[in-house]
Amino acid sequence: MQDFFYFQKMKEDFLHFLWRFKKLSLNNLKTSLGESVEIQKFGSYNTLAGPDFFNASLVIAGQHWVGNVEMHLKSSDWFAHGHEKDPNYNNVILHVVWEDDVEIFNANNQPVPTLLLKDYVSHDLLNSYQKFIYHSYSFINCENEITSVDDFILSNWKERLFIERLEQKSILIKELLSKSKNNWEAVLFQLLMKNFGGNINGESFLSIAQSFEFATFQKSTQSLKQLESLLFGQALLLTSEIPSSYEKSLQDEYKFLKSKFQLSNLGVLSPQFFKLRPPNFPTIRLSQLANLYASHSQIFSLLMTTTNRSDLQHVLKVSTSEFWNTHYTFSKESKRVKKTVSDAFINLIIINTIIPLQFCYQQSKGKLDTEILLKLAEEIPSEKNTVINNFSKLKIASNSAKDSQSLLQLYKQYCSKTRCLHCAVGTKLMKP
User: Fold this and answer.
1) Which of 68, 83, 128, 396 has the fewest C-beta atoms lying within 10 Å of its C-beta?
2) pLDDT digits (tens, 9 = 90+) for 188-215
3) Are residues 115 and 187 in the same domain?
4) Containing domain of residue 307, as a range?
């Protein structure tokens, strides 16, 4: 009964782990039909579509075979996944399973030898896996053991996680590049817009940036007034029937730009003010972004070649236009405050826009320098959020943005998905 319960909870990645790291007894291996199996090469692990391991080398019943290995919890999963009809699985030379409940055949109607893996795994290893999967925890599976992992292993793994997170952020960048016909400057603008919008207005600001040709924006960068009128107008924010003189001037400018460039608001998501602190209002962020572009004519080149935090802060330390020093919205005057972006906000822009775009841009030029990107991330203070706080409680320190980004990637892509056997910490903690 206990074995059945464990089997119900078991995941296929445990089988992959056993095979990848050779965590099985190699003595006297036999197929389900009693044929001897000698493993000469375990094969290359495949994380994409197709068999789980390519180019394995085996001797089965005295005959040498070179081909692929497929793994399932139950033999019948072969038919559940339709492999008996798929010619891509005709070169499978061994079917590795935990439970053998049915004989299987490939698309050529040839039987595929089956290895029952549970017969060759130690109880100690199985118990270690069960501890990961079944014990109760408040944050992550290995919260009681993670501090026992060598600092060298954890440090190397965090660097890999940081790069992995950049690769994940690259997906959006590549999509934007494709839509903009490889216009890197347009992609920078769209990313800045998205990240100036933050969690609440990120998608809204991105929709605004994509509602007109970037060339239209470029033609307006000589005038802060034109930039603000373009952004506010496309954001559906120039709607007052009795506007102030400032808003009226923007309305007139936007009317001219709308006619000249045939602008449309169709598809734009209206930015939200609800639940935002006034310094994060969309009016303030749009004015600050307009000021950034009005202040730097070669902003793309500048941001792609600047590789230290202090210089980037100098570039990104912008304020609003004069009107917003006494306003947060068009309709209501407030106490005079110069609304300059904070250092904390600049750090977020560097983390979420500048470093990922530098990563992709360097890759495109064949000049990727991860050491420079890691160094820049190390200059930025750690982010503060629930995930980082929980790691801190486990005595896993986060001293920089490199650490916090790595730990966020660890939690979101591994811990929360119980992908312990794909994690350097998890595989280290699994006992042989």
Assistant:
1) 128
2) 999 999 999 999 999 999 999 999 999 9
3) no
4) 163-379
